[in-house]
Amino acid sequence: MINKIIIEVIRFLEATQSQCDFLPQINATLTGASTHAVSQVVEKVTHWLEGKRPMLEFKVKGVEGLYIRLNRSHFNVKFEYQTCKLGFNSEKAVSIYTRYRERSRAPSRMKLVTYMSENADQLVENVIRSIKIMQQEKKPKLIQGATTNVPTLAEFLPTYESLCNLENPNTTTNKVNIIKNNFSYLKDYPINKIGAAELVEYLEQCRTTAKRVNDNRYKFSESTLKNYVCTLRALLKKASKFNHHPFELCPSLYGQVKFRTSKAKFRDLDEDSLRHLIASLAHRDKKKLRHRQSACRYADHLTPLVLLGLSTGLRPMYSLNIKWNHIDFKRKKIMILGGAGKIKETKMVNMTSELVKILKEWKRHAIHSRSSTNWLFPSPVKREEKLKYYKTALNTFRKQYNLENFVMYDVRHTFATLYTEYFQDIYATRDALHHKNVQTTQRYAHALETTVTKGFQPFEENKPSFVEGHGI
Description:
Blueprint: H1 2-15, E1 28-30, H2 38-49, E2 55-60, E3 66-71, E4 75-80, E5 83-88, E6 94-98, E7 111-115, H3 120-136, H4 153-167, H5 169-182, H6 196-212, H7 222-240, H8 252-255, H9 271-288, H10 302-312, H11 316-320, E8 327-328, E9 333-336, E10 347-350, H12 353-363, H13 366-370, H14 391-400, H15 410-423, H16 426-433, H17 438-441, H18 450-462
Antiparallel strand pairs: 1-2, 2-3, 3-6, 4-5, 6-7, 8-9, 9-10
Helix pairs in contact: 3-4, 4-5, 10-12, 10-15, 15-16
């Protein structure tokens, strides 16, 4: 469907260069120009073809909030006598966007659905289906046999799926399956009646089943249970803000639902493992650069990415979002922009003198001279974009250097443990890790126990003798 409309739009643009008093009818309208004023349309298209306009936007007819954008820099234009021919030089020549506002939110910005690709039709169909469901939900309707218009969990789930599709289609299926597979016993509950009692019952059932049945299908770790419960809470929170059945979210959902974190596995690296990791990274770089001339001692992004995490404790997603203009080498500060993710407000992260040298060395890498963008870690494939995937290089590195159990998040845990051991202040660690609640940071409290060991030696040396005169 969408590919057919794109072809229609291309033919429409080509037709504007002929001496016609009318334009062919298509299933889209050019935004910012009257459909009845041919001169306005021709003027905008001509400016776009000549490179004076970077982008043209068409609104798809019959589908609310669906737009097609044509990016001039990714088109090849050949002018002939009173006509022109258009060709693509990149998949980014055509991009499909959606603009839709949830009734509980302010007007949303344009969101990219996909670029021109083989699976564009399927992705666009999912978005169209989601928008249509949302349009049907705009009119409040009473549930049969109920006295209020608050739906049950099963009845709200399609609406939740459409909301997730509009926000992030990649995670929608996983979220919906978690609700269906783990909370089917709540499907007939009105969503405003689901509270802590129902979730505590579910948690206890999962824990006791895991003890009674020796089958992997029934074994849930605390982190898995927490993921399931948080997914359900996110659904209930979104439902509570939905305009035609708003309700007050039960406060017990957060206060009374507890998870057993005392048996959490420590992921920080011990001294030997940390020494082995750093030596392996150095050996990998030397091996890769053996037959290559390079001004930088780092072969690629992996070493500086790991060392940045060990020095700051930043989550990998925030390290990949850093740009060079976010780094102040004189003040030894890195600015982390808030917004998406767990950091909601802009934060400043301190750098060690060693990290300053590491990043300056990484800036000498040839990838930065070949990239037109300002990313600290640009993509080696699409250099105008940031690095998004580092797991291929990491997995190869782990296999080659006997580090199969190492994951990138271990560097954050290692930083937190070392930081806590040095400062002996769990609140300082909380601030360094940008945790909202100090209870999250308590998992590193085991590092505070080192004060007992450190204090015992001077105690033994300076205490009075307890056995003097007893002949012991």
